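seq:
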Amino acid sequence: MLTFPKSERLRHKALVDPLFREGQSLFEYPLRLVYRPLSADQLQHAFKIAVPDGIAPLQVMITVPKKKRRHAVDRVLMRRRIREAWRLQRRQLREAVEANPSLRTLSIGLIYAADSNIESARIQTKTARLIAKLSARINPQPPTES
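struct:
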C-alpha cells in the first residue's frame, strides 16, 4: 500500500529530540537523513507512562529549514516532493526493519539542504540511494563465500 498514514509520521517529542541528539546521519545531496533504531525496551523507556498506540515500525519526519528556503511556498513544494519520493520508495526499508528482530521501530528525519528547488526526479533518486544505504546499515548482508 502506497499511502502515508499518520502512524508513520514521527511526531512525538519523546522520539524527535533524541533522534537529533543521539541519531546517526547519512548524506546524499540535497538530503540529509538522521536515523535512530529503537528496540522495544528503548521505545518503552522513551515514554513516561506507556508507548502510545499507532507507532509504526518506520517513522519519518520531513523538514525544510527556513534558513535554506525563505519562502513558505518553496518549503511546502520541497516537502511535498520529498514526501512523495519517500512514499513511493520506502518499501525496501520497511522490509529491512521488519526482518531485523532486534528492531521495534526506526525513527528517521529527512532534512533538505539545498538553497534552491530541485526537480522531483532528482529528489527520488537521492531518496532511493539514502534508503539503500540505510537498509544496508540496518541489515548488513553476510559476505558470501566464492
